[in-house]
Structure formats: C-alpha cells, structure tokens
Fold each of these.
Amino acid sequence: MSRPALSIVIPFLNEEKVLPLLRARLEKMQAAIPDVELLFVSDGSSDGSCAIVNDWAERDPRVKLIALTRNFGHQSAVSAGLSFATGEVVGVMDADLQDEPEILLEMFRLLQSEQLDVVYAVRTRRHGEPVKRLFYFLFYRLFLYLADSPVQLDSGDFCVMSRRAVTLLLALPEKLRFIRGLRAWLGLPAKAFPIARPARAAGDPQYSLGRLVKLAGSGLTSFSTRPLRLGFIFGTLLCLGAVIGAMIYLGFALFSDTRLAAPGFSTLVIILLFFNGLVFLYLGLLGEYIGQIFMEVKGRPSFLVERTVNLPPDRSSHERD
C-alpha cells in the first residue's frame, strides 16, 4: 500500500468547541491535497471531542483517531501520533487553530521544493497572556544558552518532517520526550518558517502555566548538563570568599590593634539563610536530574492506546514506546 503524501498529527485535550472550526479548515486543505492523512490523538479527553472526531472518521477514512487511556501529556500525545503516521511527510499541529492548517500546507510545499528534512515554525509574534509570553521568551533564551545541542529558537512543535526525520526521531530511546529539542538534536537539513501565531479560535487553553514550567524543566534537564556545574562554581566561590575573609581577619589580628565585633545577630542569620538557600537550590536541581534518570530507568512506555479508529489492526497495539 502506498504512503499518503502528508500525515498530520493533531493532539487534543477537551477541544470540542474548536474542533468543528478546525474540521472546516482541514477539509479545505484536503481539497488541495487529497492524499492527506489526519491523525487525531486524544490525550485523555473527557468532553465530546472524541465523539466529534469519531463522527468525522466514519464519513472519511482519511481521518484517524487514537485515544490514549488517560492524559499522558502533550509530548507523549505527539509521540503517539508520530508512531502511527505513515505519510512521506508528517506534520504536527495543535488543535486550537493557533497552528494554522494553511501555514502547515505552505511549510509542506517548502520542504518538498527545497528537499529539506524539517521545516519548523518560528513565532515572530504571539497572542496570549503577558506572563506566558514572557515565560516563553525567557525559556528559549535560557535554553539557547544552556543547551549542549543545536536549538531552534522560538520554535514549538508546529512543523513538518520528512519520513527520514520521523524514523530517526522515533528511534531515539527517551521515554520523557521533548519533541522540539529532539528534532533539533537530529541535525538534519532544516529551515525556519516565520509565523505570527494567532489567538485560540475557541475554548480555553488546556496547558496551564504549571504544565509549561514542568515541560520547560524537562527540556532543560534533557539537553544540558551545565546546570550541574553550578554546584562546583558556587562551591569554589564560597570557599574562595571564606579564605579571603579568614586572611583579612588574620591580618587585622596580627598587624592591627583593631578588634572586629559582629554588628548583630540579624547579619549572621541572613548570611546563613542565603547560603543554605543555595545548598537547597542545588539539591533541588540535582533532584530534577535524578528524577529524569528514575523515570527513564523504569522503562515504562510514553503512552498507552485505549482504542483507534480507521487504523489497521496491526498498527493498533495497546502499548507502544
């Protein structure tokens, strides 16, 4: 059986308000590229989202549904869709229409015309809460500074990838996956595609600030060991400061009649709190890395599939990595 020209992976979580709008836009794309496969991945949706996709899939065999057993997280849902996608080119986009199907079609054509392996969207302008926009800005600059591998600045998961890129990405053994980081790590021919990201078409965001912070922490610890060096740097500076302070006090004691007295208890408390705070901060950082190791060593799959629609039985296994 021949592969579709394009597979589009669309993870979603409780998006029943926006899915009818997305369907109208995607059906226009299907008119432009009839040979397109749409893979909707339900990341534990509890509203009517799956029923909407299921109804569409009954009318159009090009529409597939992959329902996970529970909410495993956005990155796991994307990985699930990639593992089922069969297209020569695979696109990834969110269901909230902040990733526009028309833009994905343009990226698809650019990838084909320039024979690239990855075309990824770079956000030149973003709608949303100022706090989240600031968080995104700071995260990507920090990630760029700390990462030990190439970084695609201001890029998300919105992209198109060649079959070669998808195969290599799926072959990576990580269970805790940060797709945009792994995509850059591959080092394949890639090109940025500038976009102005619109606001959500309908409904409320399902990705809270807490989940974004968790994703950012996972990304930083997965692709950089530089934070681990902070302990050595702070320890060296503190020891050096202690030696210098001891030498100053010794100099006063040996060569001066001046006697230094502590100005008060509060000064000592502040210093102790500061340095103890540094110790616990670094212990927390070590804990993040140890937690990553713990999760990887257990070897549990990134997701479990409860059911699929319009997918062959041999590709509908209930457990995939």
Amino acid sequence: MKPSRFMTLSRHIVEGEKKHPGATGELSALLADFALAVKIIALEVNKAGLVDILGFEGSNNVHGEKVKKLDMYAHDILIRAMDHGGHLAVMASEEEEDIIHIPKKHRIGKYVLLFDPLDGSSNIDANVSIGTIFSIYRRVSPDGLPGTEEDCLQEGYKQVAAGYVVYGSSTMLVYTAGNGVYGFTLDPSVGEFLLSHDDIKIPQRGKIYSLNEGNYKYWHNGLKKYIKYLQDADDRTGNPYTARYIGSMVADIHRNLLYGGIFIYPADKRNPKGKLRLMYECNPMAFIVEAAGGRASDGKQRTLEIKPESIHERSPIYIGSEGDVLEVEKFLREEEMAEAEEKKK
C-alpha cells in the first residue's frame, strides 16, 4: 500500500484528534510516548544477536512461562516511558501479576494502558519476527485517584485505541483509534515512523489459514472438519488454502491483515479456555481487525463483547477475514448441534 502523502505517526495522530471536537491532545501525547519506547525496544531487538540479552532471564512470569531477558527489557522500557507523562491512571502487563500503579509523585491521568511487551518471544533466539501489542481504554474509576483493576477489566469494544509493533526486516507500527487502520514503518535514518500503509482494509476472504496443527488431536471435531475442508481441493470454493504459521501472533495476524485469511488459536481438550490472553492479545488485535473490516470471535461470541473477569484471562480466538471467520463459526456451531443431538439419543 502506497501512502497518499508524506506523513509521520505523530502528525497523523494529531490530525486524527482534530476531527473530534473536544479532543484534548492527551491521547496524541500518550501515543507519542509509546512510540518513543518502541523505538528504544527496536534498537535492542535489532542487535539482540550481538549483545548479551538473549537466553532465559532465569525466572518465570505469572503464567509459569520462562521469561526471556529481552521480554523484561521491553516490559521495563514501556513502564519507564509511560508512567510519568500524566496521561495514565494505571497500566497492566502480561509480564506483571498485578496492575501497575502510577507513582504518587506523578499526575494521574484518564487513560489505561494494557500491553504485551514482547509477543512471540519464544522466537527471539531464532531471529523470527516478534512484536509488541497495546490497548488503551478510558478509566472508569473517579478522576484524580489511583487507577484500579476495574479500569483494566473492560470489554474490548470500549477501547479508544489499540495497536501492535512488528520487529522484523523493518520495524512497523500499526494502530487504530476505531476509525481506520494505519501502518507506519520506522525510518532508522531519521528516527521517525512514516506512513506506509494508509487505511488498511482486510480482504473479505483470504487463502491463508494460520494455526498450530501439531495440536490436531486435541481439537474439537468442528475445527478438525473445518481444517479438512480448507485442505480439500475444490474449484468452486477456491480451496485448498495455504497453511502459514509463524508462531508470533503479531506476525501471523499482520500478514493476514494485509493479504486476507484466518488466524486460529482454539480452545482444545488440554486448554478449554484457550491459551492467548484476552486483555493483552485478543482484544487489541480484534479491535484492529474489526476496524479494518474483519471479524474476531471465540467461536461463539464476538471477542470484543466478552466481559473479562481477570486481567490475565485466557480466550480462544478466530480472527481475520470476515467471510473466513463466519465460515469456521458455522462449522463449530453445526458440530456442537450434532453432538447435542447425539447425546439425546
């Protein structure tokens, strides 16, 4: 996608706020702080193979997973960049068990920031694309007071902005404030994110499916039938689809956002609630994909309408081109009905 004009990220955000009467500029400033943190993280990611920041940090995060050194570096940089700007009431990170309060010496703002500092970190040592995911809400607790967990536990449709960063052959930031999805590529020579993908629209249908097929035997029957359907050659439907799975949610969804297709991380017999985090991964990605004309659900319910019960809640997700997501939902629904009928016999 070629941009229509020379545009920096900061200028784009400011011009977007001008379209909304009553905008204070706080969201623009918040996103500018976030972009600065991302630039610093990108510098470390790009030289990760050259300095001693690879390998395990030596501890486990709240989910029992081993923490990579670069994970914690990104986590710390984001907190240090965002906790003193006066725009945030509270933060939450995938790497932190509890919510992250703003230090008392700083002004308490009206926004809430949730983030996954380094998605796909198991790929770090293999030099595969990884990313950062973020989500912004307005606080629901009284202004001026420290933020609460309630501020973080909001349905995804209440997001005011969301985005992700891909650290790959280039560093790219994709964001939406609910009206359109825009991609900016970092020009390292000038240190600016420049508009490279203007008003991204995901195709109605794609030719790519992305999921870990190594878990096939644990899937529910409806998903097994859907994947078999995609793999069967059929001139009428355009099948077979192409399987593409990187293992970094950011990278897989970014590709499908541009080319069309579906990304799936389902519930299965071992993980009945799925594995991806609703607040840090599913909700922000769903907000972006829906703003681009796509669809996201847990197989039964729109992802953005799920009422969260904990900040580290997990959820299945089916996300991507609207036609593809509707189709897998149909397979899941029909199989569930068939199994219910079988039990009645």
Amino acid sequence: MKLTKDELAEILEELSKHRGRHTELITVYISEGFDVNSVQKQLGAEKSTAKNIKSAATRKNVIDALEKIVRYLKTLKKTPENGLGVFAGNVSKVEGQSDLQLWIVEPPQPVKVRLYRCDKKFVLEPLREQLEVDEVFGLLVMDRKEATIGLLEGKRIEVLHKMTSGVPSQIRAGGQSSQRFGRIIEGLTKEFYKRIADEMKKVFFSRKKLKGILVGGPIPTKDEFLDGEYMVTQLREKVIGRKDIGGSDESGLKELVEKAQDILSQQEIIAEKKVLERFFRTLGENPDMAALKEPDTKQALDYGAVDVLLLSKSLKKSVSNPLKEIAKNIGSTIEIISIDTDEGQQFKNLGGIGAVLRFRV
C-alpha cells in the first residue's frame, strides 16, 4: 500500500538510524514500470558474488539479506504503481547476534531510479526527495535561440524537451534592406514562441499535479513570450514567477530553480493556508460539518465521516499515528499542518487536531 508523505518520513527516520558493522546493509530501488523478475535475477547474481566476501560474518549477513529480499519479490506479480524501495540487513547492535530486518516502501510518488547498493548504511536520498513537495512545477528557460522545458519534482529536475529556433544571430543583407531582414527574424521568433507554447500544452495541460510554472530567460525574451499570450489561458494562469537568467539549457533550469526558491517556499505556505481557511470557515459557518480536538475527531473517524483530517506537526506520534491509521482506512485526506505560520500556530493552540466532515455525526 502506498505510504503517505508523513508515513514515509517516519520510516526514513527509522532507517537512517541503522548502521552496519561492514558493508552489509542492502538497498534496492525498483523504478516504476520496471520488471520485478529482472530484479530477482540481478539479486541472484549478486548472491553469487557475495560468496567471495572474505569475512564469514559479513558474507552470511549479505547473503541472508539478499535471500530475504528475493523471497519477498517472488510474492509480487508485478512492480507496484510507484515502484519500490526495499531495505534489508542485520541491524543487531550486539556483535555476533542476528536481527535480520526487511522494510518494504511503496512511496507516495513514482521512484525514478533503479539501484542496488550494499553499504554500511541504507541509501535514502531518492525517497527523501519525495518529502520536499507533493506537487510538481513546470519549468521553461528560453532565449531566441533555444528553449528547454523541464519538470521539478521535489529537488529533482527532469528535462522534458529541448528546442531550437533556427533564428540566425546575424544575417548579411546581401543588398536587401535591413528592415526586411528584421521582419524575417521577428517572424521566425514568433513562430518559435508558438512552437514553445504548443509543446508546453502537450507536456503540461493534462498534468493533474502541476502546481505552477516558472519561466526564466533574458529580460526581453521571456517577457515577450509571456506578455504575448502565446500559451493557452489555463497554463498562463499557472505561471507563478518569471526570473532573469542567462542559460536556456539544462544548466538554465537549475539556475531558474535556485533563483525561485522564495516562490516555491511560498507555494507550500499558500496551500496550507487554504486548507486551514476551509477548516476554520466550516467550523464557524457550519459547525456540524467540522470536528475540533481529539474526542470529536476520533468519533467522526470511527463513523467514517471525515473528509479531511488535520493534524498539527507538533503532535506526538503516539497521538497522531492512531488517528492517521483510521483516516487512511476510510480514505480520508490527511493534512499535516506546520507551526511556521500564524494560522498553523492558531490551530496548534486549539489542540492541533481537527477535521472537515463528509456528513454530520
């Protein structure tokens, strides 16, 4: 079952505490859509290689962990929708004793990497990136020569499409007027902008989790493109920022993301504020359709009446985890509210537990 962002954070916290005495903790990432049977064969080959490990204890721990992972993978008919992170190893703190553990992580977002690693610690970075943001952001960097369209998921930048304009930087007039060549260049530039807009529509228009679009480039070019309204209205309305940058290739995408950190941080705050606004509005205008504090919220959960469960990040796990488990079982949306905003502090001061209901209890 896919984990929530909060559940993933808890597992990563646990995994990060374990250290092997030698390179004997095994990490396996299976990317979305990759054949799980191929991974089994790869691990079988790794098991044969592990037989050459000189230390008897390390050799046993590695082989045991590999066998445990393979046994689990054989129970799968196919790779889960978002791929898998699999972690196994002897995590006993007492030398000479065995505590062979296996963790299976089906993350909230697709795994994009395939990896096998045997090390003193588990490789967690591909999953940590998923804790950054739930949404994705479209990226465009451009000048009159080229454009690169990309996607930002967490901290990972993916290049989706590269384009060149064919607009010459300098044309010799050859006896003809410079004005005419200027018009030709302008015409080619506009055609390039239209092609960029068409490609943006192809890759972003139907993307449900697209939170916003960032555009970067030299001062006149990006502004000509945006102000000229080449993009369809739905995408223009998703432009959350434009930044002056020099690059129009993959390095430009990285520069754009770096310069837009203030905008990206604000987006998460805005999303959280909207959740709290809905909760407080419901509590004030239609109190029968909201629950506040633990007893009423727990009762609403038990009745299956919770549409959105709100939990303050300040709560102890012993309090929040049982509520999250019930919410998960009844298909509720779970929102973890930070204490970084005035609204978040207000919610914390009210007990840090609340819900918007599907029906009255």
